[in-house]
Every structure is written in structure tokens, then in C-alpha cells.
């Protein structure tokens, strides 16, 4: 969870975040831009948990992916074999009989 901050503005008009100590004094003053970027870089416990679950799911996937890849390769080989096989000759069309 992000630390609670007091919002202020600098003389130049930039938004500031001030973190106060327990006694009320300013512990740290940062620009909103820097503080926000730091917050975005930090991952919460919930985000770490879902990332770990995704990583575990990805590790299981390669077996399925390998099977799919083998099936695709088999289909390509089958298709190539079909192209190499001699084509069947179709019987010539007989001329229509005239009466």
C-alpha cells in the first residue's frame, strides 16, 4: 500500500507529496511525478502473487505446446508426401454418342 502523503504545490506550480513523520514534521518531500513513478515501479503483494501463478501456468504450457507443434509438423509431412505421390490419371471422357 502507498504511504499516506500530504499534497502541496511548489512555488513553480508543481504538485508535491510530503510524507510526515509521527511527530508531524516533514520526513520527505517529493514531486508528484517522482513519487508516482516510484509507486508504479513497486509491485504489491497481490501483484506478485498473480505473477507467480502466471509463471507456474506458463511452465505447464510447454508440454501442450510441444504436442501441438508435433501435430502441426506431422500434418506438414503428410501434405508433402501427398504432393510427391503420383497423381491418379482420370479416365478420358468418352465422346457423346450421336443418334
Please sum up the structure shown.
The protein has helices spanning 32-41, 45-84; strands spanning 6-9, 15-20, 26-31. With 99 residues, the chain is α+β, with helices and mostly antiparallel strands.
Report on the structure:
There is one protein chain. By secondary structure, the chain is an alpha+beta fold. Among the domains are: 36 residues, no CATH class; 31 residues. The protein contains two helices and three strands, in the order βββαα. The longest helix is centred in the middle third of the chain and has 40 residues.
Annotation keywords:
rod-shaped, 99 residues, 2 helices, 3 strands, three-stranded antiparallel sheet
Amino acid at each position: 500500500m502507498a504511504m499516506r502523503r500530504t499534497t502541496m504545490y511548489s512555488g513553480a506550480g508543481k504538485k508535491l507529496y510530503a510524507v510526515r513523520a509521527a511527530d508531524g514534521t516533514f520526513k520527505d518531500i517529493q514531486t508528484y511525478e517522482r513519487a508516482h513513478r516510484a509507486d508504479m515501479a513497486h509491485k504489491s503483494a497481490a501483484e506478485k502473487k498473480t505473477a507467480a501463478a502466471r509463471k507456474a501456468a506458463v511452465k505447464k504450457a510447454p508440454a501442450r505446446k510441444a504436442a501441438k507443434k508435433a501435430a502441426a509438423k506431422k500434418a506438414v509431412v503428410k501434405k508433402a508426401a501427398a504432393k510427391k505421390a503420383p497423381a491418379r490419371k482420370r479416365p478420358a471422357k468418352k465422346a457423346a454418342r450421336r443418334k
